[in-house]
Amino acid sequence: MSRIDTETARKVAKLARIAVPEDQLPALAGELSNILTFMEQLGEVDVDGVEPMTSVTPMRLKRRDDTVTAGSMPDRILSNAPDAREGFFAVPKVVE
């Protein structure tokens, strides 16, 4: 079981750019130790033969036919644009 001391917790907080008051470092060290302990427990689980999942519920993405369309409908395409000029999307200038 890995134990995190307060000095290591201080270093982790500094690397994460988190301001942790000195009196809360022991509690943070305990929480980090618990996380590492949990990760070690996960490493002990036998996952041989278990197929990887991307979700806890089996889902398939909705698919549509990849068909060629006319595409030449700029008025419909630009109808929801906040700002359109001369048949193009108008965006704020970001580079001088």
UniProtKB/TrEMBL annotation:
The Enzyme Commission number assigned here is 6.3.5.-
BP terms from Gene Ontology: glutaminyl-tRNAGln biosynthesis via transamidation; regulation of translational fidelity; translation
Q: Which InterPro entries match?
A: Asp/Glu-ADT_sf_sub_c, GatC
Gene3D superfamilies per the record? Glu-tRNAGln amidotransferase C subunit, N-terminal domain (1.10.20.60)
UniProt keyword terms in alphabetical order: ATP-binding, Ligase, Nucleotide-binding, Protein biosynthesis, Transferase
Query: Enzyme class, one word?
Result: ligase
Q: Which reaction does it catalyse?
A: L-glutamyl-tRNA(Gln) + L-glutamine + ATP + H2O = L-glutaminyl-tRNA(Gln) + L-glutamate + ADP + phosphate + H(+); L-aspartyl-tRNA(Asn) + L-glutamine + ATP + H2O = L-asparaginyl-tRNA(Asn) + L-glutamate + ADP + phosphate + 2 H(+)
Q: Name one Pfam family in it.
A: GatC
Specify the superkingdom.
Bacteria
Q: Which GO terms describe its molecular function?
A: ATP binding; glutaminyl-tRNA synthase (glutamine-hydrolyzing) activity; transferase activity
Keyword Ribosomal protein on entry: no
Describe the task this protein carries out: Allows the formation of correctly charged Asn-tRNA(Asn) or Gln-tRNA(Gln) through the transamidation of misacylated Asp-tRNA(Asn) or Glu-tRNA(Gln) in organisms which lack either or both of asparaginyl-tRNA or glutaminyl-tRNA synthetases. The reaction takes place in the presence of glutamine and ATP through an activated phospho-Asp-tRNA(Asn) or phospho-Glu-tRNA(Gln).
Family membership: Belongs to the GatC family.
Q: Which PANTHER family match?
A: GLUTAMYL-TRNA(GLN) AMIDOTRANSFERASE SUBUNIT C, MITOCHONDRIAL (PTHR15004:SF0)
The entry describes its oligomerization and partners as: Heterotrimer of A, B and C subunits.
Q: What is this protein called?
A: Aspartyl/glutamyl-tRNA(Asn/Gln) amidotransferase subunit C
Report which gene this protein is encoded by.
gatC
